[in-house]
Amino acid sequence: xxxxxxxxxxxxxxxxxxxxxxxxxxxIIPGKNQIPVSGRVFDQHELYNLVDSSxxxxxxxxxxxxEFEKELSKFVNVNFTATVNSGSSANLLAFSAxxxxxxxxxxxxxxxxxxxxxxxxxTTLNPVIQNGCVPVxxxxxxxEYNIPFRSIKKNITAKTKAIFLAxxxxxxxxxxxxxxxxxxxxxxxxxxxCDALGALYDGKKVGSFGxxxxxxxxxxxxxxxxxxxxxxxxxxxxxxxxRSFRDWGRxxxxxxxxxxxxxxxxxxxxxxxxxxxxxxxxxxxxxxxxKMTDMQASIGLAQLGKIKRFVKKRNENHTLLTExxxxxxxxxxxxxxxxxxxxxxFGFVLTVKKSAPFTRGELIKYLEEYKVASRFLFAGxxxxxxxxxxxxxxKPVSLKNSKLVMNNTFWIGCYPAINKYIIQYIxxxxxxxxxxxxx
Length: 439
Description:
CATH class of the largest domain: Alpha Beta
Strand content: 5-15%
Helix content: 25-40%
Distance between the termini: 79 Å
Radius of gyration: 23 Å
CATH architecture of the largest domain: 3-Layer(aba) Sandwich
Strand order of the largest sheet: 1-9-8-5-4-2-3
Structural class: alpha/beta
Oligomer: single chain
Low-confidence stretches: none
Number of strands: 14
Number of domains: 2
CATH topology of the largest domain: Aspartate Aminotransferase, domain 2
C-alpha cells in the first residue's frame, strides 16, 4: 500500500509540472495588458511544492515551514526566524514582543515614545498605537525617502524607547549607524524589511542589524507565499516572546503535533496557577494565533531559491528606468540609493517637481489610460489619514518633505516580470505625455 501511495504521489507531482506548463502564461503585452506595479513571479517549482504539501494534509506548520524558517535565517544571517500569517502581523508581533515581561525593566510600556516615519505604511505605525505608545513622527529625505540618521539622533529624548522604521521601497536607511547608536543608548530598533528582502547596507543584509526585523510575503514583495510574513532576531529571549505572542500567548514552545518537549509538562508553577497545570495551557502573554500554514511555507521555500535572481532583475530594471528618466529630470526628482547601500528596489519612485506644468493627478490619469499602473508612496503624510484623526502624535520637526510626498510622489513597477521592452513602452507613454509641455 505504501508503494502504491508513493507511486500515485509521484504521478500527481509529475502532472502538476505539466499542468503549470500548459496553464500559466506570465506575459505582459505593453499597451494591451495593464503593466502592474508588482505581482507574483513563479514557475512549476512553487506549484510542485504546494501540491506536495497539500498531499500531506498537514494544515498548520510542518516540514516545509521548518525548512523555510531555517533558509530565511541563513539568507538574512540571523539566529531565529518565526513565520507568521502576514507582514502586518509580523510588525504587530515584533513590537508586542518588546512589551513582554520577559524583558524586565527594558519592556516597553504605555506612554513610551517611539520614533516613526511621517511617510509610512499604516502597519508599521499601527502596533505603536495599538500598544498605547506615542508615535514621534520625523520627516523623510528626498530622494531617498528615509529619515536621515542625523535627524533621528537629534530628536532622541529620555522618553524614546524604540525606533520602528521601514527601508522605504527597498532602499536601506543608515541602519548600521542607527543600530550602533541604539545599542549604546539602550533603545530598541525594529527594521521593517517588508519591501527590502535582499537589500544590503555596508555589505550586510538589512534585517540583521536591529533587535527585530520583519518581512512580508504578500504577492507584491520580493518573494511571495500569497499571504505570510516573518519576524527575525538574533535574540533567544525576543524569539521566545515573538513565538508566544504568535501562538495564542502560550508559555509552551512545543511545535504543533508535539508535546512535553520540556520534559516537565505537568510540573510547572507559573503565576497564580496550581503547580502541575498543563504547560500547553499556560499563557504568559495576551496573544494571538498568527501562524503560517505549511502550504504557504512550501511556496515561500521555492521562491526563496530565486531571491538572488529576483533582486538582480529588480535592480537591473531600476537602473534602466533611471537611465531613461534622466531625460525627464526637468519635471521629476529621480530616486537615489542611500550612500553605502545596495537596495533591493521595490518600485521606481518619482516626485513631480513643484515647478512642473502638470499635477501628479493629471499624469496618473494619463498613465492609467495607457495601462501603466502606479501607486502613491503608501499613506503619504500618515497623520493626515482619516483613521488617525484623534491619535496623539508628536511632531518635533517640520514635515515639509512628507507633505510633498503626499501631494507629488508616486511609483511604478520594476519587479521581475518587467523587461526592457515594457520599459521602452513606459518611457514612450511618459514621453508622449510630457511632449505637450515642451516649448
